[in-house]
Amino acid sequence: MKLYFIPFACSLASRIATEEAGLDAEFVQVLPGHKLPDGGDYRDVSPMGYVPALETRSGITLTEGPAVLQYLADNAADGVLAPALFSEERYRMQLWLNFVSTEVHKAVFAPLFAKDAGEAEKQAALGRVAKPFAVLSKHLESREHLGASFTVADAYLLAVLNWCETAGVDIAAWPVLLGYRTRLRARPSVARAMAAEMPLLKAA
Question: 0.70 cut: is pTM over it?
Fold first, then answer.
């Protein structure tokens, strides 16, 4: 498998998943301007230019983070990255993957990081933080993870919560989420993934 990533972007969740499951993957860094290390244009891999993208062993290319994460989960040992197929817990995991993608990543953080977003748009995005963060806080109040155990949904949420300080979101106002992020950062797979990407982020 070949995984395309940008350091500490949402593709970090895919690296965490491969670390957690011990999957074999080649990581290819997408450079500024959608350039690849071999000089190619990343948009030939992923037309929207977003990471992650995954070239599978069978030769197909997957884009969209939740799709990539579920593919990785299905290629890991049973129960390592996701609950059993067709179980209620599996559908709850899919619920959280979609919630993080739409209500947090795209609705809040995407405008905050967009170079073409105006000040009014950024303020509107900050105004949208409270509702999904309140939902997540209430859900995680008495839980270690989004589901019964760690899944790719947790990897995705952790990757997104890592952006809070850079984006101007005061995560300390939601102590449950701050505690959740702190715990997950100490997880060995998460720590290894972040350690692998931190030097690349600093060099970017």
Answer: yes
